[in-house]
User: What shape does this take?
Amino acid sequence: MSSGLMSYVWEGLGNTLLLTVFGALLGLVFAFIAGLGRSSERTWVRGIAMVYTEIFRGFPSLVLLFALIFIVPTFGYQLNPLFAGILALALNIGAYAAEVVRGAVKAVPPGQIEAAIALNFTPWQRLRKVVLPQAVVAMIPPFTNNLIELLKATSLVSLVYISDLTFSAQLIRASTGETALVFFGLLVGYGVIALFFTAIMKLLERMAARSLGRTVPSGLFGRKEVAA
Amino acid sequence: MDWDWEYAIDSLPLLAEGILVTIELTVLGALLAYVLGLVFAMIRRVGVPVLSQFVYLFVEFIRSTPLLIQVFAFYYLLQPAIGVKLSPFLTGVIMLGVHYATYTSEVYRAGIEAIPKGQWEAARALSIPRGRVWTGVILPQAVPRVLPALGNYTISMFKETPLLLAIGVVDVLNSAKEAGAETFRVIEPYTLAGVFFLLVSYPASILVRKLERRVGTV
Assistant: This one.
């Protein structure tokens, strides 16, 4: 393959990684706000968090992408396409991850929270020093699934003409006609990126568990989440 | 740009056709995923040599790569290679079904593993034939428990159908796109398409949660 075509590959790969990493970070922010919001004592906070998770879990990410790329400009704003992609993916994955945050916070034994109250911790200290350190360990395995879902969803941005890995591959296929090579390489490429992210998440899980004095079984596919 | 009710109503018939296609894709794809997923799970449980390892690798591979690219590969690469030409619709049904079968197989696996060992032992002690053990003992206990998870994946499939517009399936989003291309007004058709997804998936997820409360989760 000529170097001109290779530069498409690198650009696409860069954008795919960019979409995944920033989508994940922004999604994490949405997830924590909405997930903790749903555990709030105030009804209106719970209400807003619930509306967010229900709406964005109900929309296909492609519809969201179309809305941000094609509808928003009709109001006179033009979002940077890459940012629009990140935002659409983050809003979607954040709604799923919010449920993970909520579940993990709920799973912290009530005795822990009672003990923190008995020790006169402020609500913020309770959250930061008692609840979250334990909840985060439980969040990481399902977050790994969310991250892989996000990586897979980034391929959708090629349908709104953002030059990610899939888009570059389509360009190369159109100009060289190497259908087999391109699609095979693409599938293997996404598989390898997924493996790479899984390994990083496994490392994070071990670090988080160690900080609590727990250990995590070794192996990349040690655990598997089942329910959607 | 303002909302134009007249235009919104005018675009409804076109959208309705797309809605029908989206629903057909979801129903047929889901049926395929339910059956194929069970086959995968049983192959792995029984431990058929070679086939079992192949299914494991296949499931891991399909689960970690995007459906969109699998659809492209199946449509532009595999079909010409084996000399068949399926319609975009049929391609969509098959790929949705195969992709989600890898997810449902994990669900069935968990459901089957949740059946106490004593059930298998009791079935063997009563010398029930192998096929009958599955149909008479294991599956009747495992399947009800996996229904909520299957329901969740069906909703996910429903929301993935729009990506099939990439190979020319005229689903609800593609209909909206066509309506928009004719008139250069995109707010109404896209919004209606979005509302349609929300109107189906939100009540469906409430139903799944009700089911979850009744039968429990795996």
